[in-house]
Write a structure and sequence with these properties.
The chain has about 475 residues and is an alpha+beta fold. It has three domains: about 100 residues; about 80 residues, Phosphorylase Kinase, domain 1, CATH 3.30.200.20; about 240 residues, Transferase(Phosphotransferase), domain 1 (Orthogonal Bundle). It has 15 helices and twelve strands. The protein has a five-stranded antiparallel β-sheet, with helices on one face. The chain has a three-stranded antiparallel β-sheet with strand order 6-8-9. Strand 4 and strand 5 form a beta hairpin. The radius of gyration is 36 Å and the shape is elongated.
Length: about 475
């Protein structure tokens, strides 16, 4: 009797344990079902924007779970344990996150039309800015001592780009010219300065991604020998001065002006490019290297060893390019060395002395006995086409001054009478506005070209023969 009485509570306890276990498992299944529904909702929401990065913090939590508790995550729950539920939930989130990434292939039967309709093409594997595989090389454009330039295409927006790929040497690191160019161009936003779209840095290379501009002034002049149309010269020069005025106001010197570094778009926009030798100039002036600017466009003060210069350095190059566009030949094409280059300059502008150039005798490479004594000439005697264009000789003479402080600034040159027949609105444009947004401002056909006139729908209407200039 006593045995039966003791057995009865034991049976009740056993039944209660079974009931408790059953209830615990039921609660667990309910909780699991609820969590799964929640995860499904998260996946659907995330897939609607094709973005699962919000799961990252949850996944990281899984990595921080102690090893002994990770084992518990893999076991079948036998009781309603809060930690086990949490760990299993994290495990499911981890697996569901993978399901999010492959949602379309894994759950195509369950995916609703609404989700498919609102899905964005962007995904974790989509092309992004700052990634090397986001750009496709199309053709090689040129190669320098430390960089190769390719025509390319952006996989992000489909636009053509120029890829300047700079080779990095482990023992040398990133070339300082590349660092300088990238840092300066990031802050320059102007219609007449080439736009830097992107920077990609890998272990082997540094790639600067620029807007693609199909030619440069050197190639343009080679295509049209004998000098350019006077009106085109004026528009190119105006844009060059406009870009220089912008960087000079920001205390930046280009230091390597030459036709190869002036890009020309198919609409006639001129853009300053290749800022590898550019320098941010602080005040007071620093001492800079005199090994700058290609020889033909290098000013006499730099040729004579001066290392203290300002924006006037660039303005000499402007004068040389101005002459070359009009005349069709380089202004001072030195063929041998610095001595030969200086002789060609002094032949036209006159050999300097302390009266015409205060301080010239103190320059490192100036030795009076080394140079033939020439008197100054009118520029039209050397470059006859200057005499056919109003105010062109006067402007050129004020840019090509041996004494650097006598050269016009970019801003002053923009207001010279040479530009007086251009529309006044050109001086009111914002930095990022092209001069070709102003009515009646357009390139003229060069010799041997025909002028295309387009209607409202961009349809070809007629071709007008051009006249020689």
């Amino acid at each position: 009797m006593c045995d039966m009485i003791e057995a009865q509570p034991a049976q009740k306890i056993s039944k209660m344990k079974k009931l408790r276990r059953t209830l615990s498992e039921s609660f667990s299944r309910i909780a699991l079902k609820k969590d799964e529904n929640t995860i499904d909702e998260i996946c659907v929401t995330k897939m609607s924007t094709r973005n699962c990065h919000g799961m990252d913090s949850v996944i990281k939590h899984l990595d921080t779970i102690p090893e002994d508790k990770k084992v518990r995550v893999q076991r079948t729950q036998s009781s309603f344990d809060p930690f086990e539920k949490s760990a299993n939930q994290v495990k499911r989130v981890h697996s569901e996150n993978n399901a999010c990434i492959n949602f379309k292939s894994a759950s195509v039967g369950k995916e609703s039309p609404k989700v498919r309709r609102h899905s964005s093409p962007s995904s974790p594997t989509s092309p992004k800015f700052g990634k090397a595989d986001s750009y496709e090389k199309l053709e090689k454009l040129g190669e320098g001592s430390y960089a190769t330039v390719y025509k390319g295409k952006s996989k992000v927006n489909g636009k053509l780009v120029a890829l300047k790929i700079i080779r990095l040497q482990e023992e040398e690191g990133t070339p300082f010219t590349a660092i300088r160019e990238a840092s300066l161009l990031k802050g320059l936003k102007h219609a007449n300065i080439v736009l830097l779209h992107d920077i990609i840095h890998t272990k082997e290379t540094l790639t600067l991604v620029f807007e693609y501009v199909h030619t440069d002034l050197c190639q343009y002049m080679d295509k049209h020998p004998g000098g350019l149309h006077p009106e085109n010269v004026k528009l190119f020069l105006f844009q060059l001065l406009r870009g220089l005025s912008y960087i000079h106001q920001g205390h930046i010197l280009h230091r390597d002006l030459k036709p190869q570094n002036l890009l020309i778009s198919d609409t006639g926009e001129l853009k300053l490019a290749d800022f590898g030798l550019a320098r941010a100039k602080s005040i007071p002036s620093h001492t800079y290297s005199n090994e700058v600017v290609t020889l033909w466009y290098r000013p006499p003060d730099v040729l004579l060893g001066s290392t203290e210069y300002s924006t006037c350095l660039d303005m000499w190059g402007v004068g040389c390019i101005f002459i070359e566009m009009i005349q069709g030949v380089a202004a001072f094409p030195g063929m041998k060395d610095i001595q030969d280059q200086l002789e060609r300059i002094f032949l036209i502008l006159g050999t300097p002395n302390e009266e015409t150039w205060p301080g010239v005798h103190s320059l490192q490479h100036f030795k009076l006995e080394r140079f033939t004594q020439y008197g100054p000439k009118n520029l039209r005697q050397a470059w006859n086409k200057l005499s056919y264009i109003n105010h062109a000789e006067d402007l050129a003479s004020k840019l090509l001054q041996c004494f650097p402080k006598n050269r016009l600034s970019a801003q002053t040159a923009l207001n010279h009478d040479y530009f007086s027949d251009l529309p006044p609105r050109l001086w009111e444009l914002s930095d990022m506005s092209s001069i070709f947004t102003v009515p009646n401002v357009k390139l003229h056909p060069e010799v041997g070209e025909s002028l295309r006139v387009f209607g409202k729908n961009n349809s070809f209407c007629k071709s007008l023969p051009n006249s020689k200039h």
